[in-house]
Design brief:
With 118 residues, this protein is an alpha+beta fold. It is built from 5 helices and 5 strands, in the order E-E-E-E-H-H-E-H-H-H. The protein has helices at residues 42-49, 52-61, 75-80, 93-103, 108-117, and strands at 8-12, 14-15, 21-23, 34-37, 71-72. The protein has a 3-stranded antiparallel sheet with strand order 3-1-4, covered by helices on one side. Strands 2-5 form a two-stranded antiparallel sheet.
Length: 118
């Protein structure tokens, strides 16, 4: 019960785009098909999880197939997602995307390809 009152990330399992919510006050609780993540550095983790780049990586390599236009953030798949430990310093979405592509060390062709798809 202690995790419910901590800062946490809440998310729905089936979505059409990343929809992670940072509960900094510990006031919100997950409902039937919503889940939570607690731990350290969740302020940075939510930037990764809400990014278009990580969403594209997750949907294409971890989600086990799409659901039409949507996909599932299933716990087993989420636990396998490789999220870098680097702290993101950017606060603007477009700059966060560029920073994530840089952290993953994608070359310019790979960056252009991913950006054309997200």
């Amino acid at each position: 019960m202690d995790d419910f009152s901590k800062q946490k990330i809440l998310y729905s399992e089936i979505v059409t785009r990343p929809q992670f919510y940072f509960d900094s006050s510990g006031r919100f609780m997950p409902e039937a098909t919503a889940f939570l993540i607690t731990g350290s550095n969740i302020g940075t983790l939510i930037k990764y999880l809400n990014s278009k780049t990580i969403s594209w990586i997750f949907k294409n390599y971890y989600a086990g197939g799409g659901l039409g236009n949507g996909f599932r953030y299933k716990k087993a798949f989420m636990e396998q997602l490789c999220v870098p430990s680097e702290i993101l310093t950017e606060v603007v979405d477009e700059k966060i995307e560029d920073e994530i592509l840089q952290i993953y060390k994608f070359n310019n062709d790979e960056k252009r390809y991913i950006k054309s798809l997200i």
